[in-house]
Amino acid sequence: MKKKLWCTAWILSGFIMGGCGAGQGAEPDSELAQELQIPDETAENRTSETERISTNELDNDAANHDDMNNEALDSEASKQTQTGEHLPAIGITTEKKEWYTDDGETLLLTVTADKVTVEENGFDALNAALSAQWDGLTKGYEGLLQSAKEHYQSEKDFGYYFSNYYHHENVVAYRIDNRVASFCCIYDSYEGGAHGNYDFDGATFDVKSGKKMQLEDMLSDAEGFYDKAVSYLTAELEENYGDGLFPEYREVVKEDTFGETPACWYLDNTGIVIQYNPYSVAPYATGAPSVTLPYDVFAEYLKEEYTSPCSSMVARVKENEDISRLLGIDGKVMLVSAYNEEYGETEVTVVSGDSSETVGEFSRFVMGYAVKRADGRSFLVFYCDYASDDFVTYVYEVTDGNVRACDKLEGASFEGGYSGTSDKFYLGTDTLSLYMHLDVLGTYVGSMKYQLTKEGKLLQTEEVFAVDTAFELKVVKDLPVTLAGAETTIPVGSVLKITGTDNAGTAYFRLDTGETGTISYVRDDEQWQLLIDGLSENEYFEMVPYAG
Question: What is the mean pLDDT of the chain?
Answer without folding.
Answer: 86
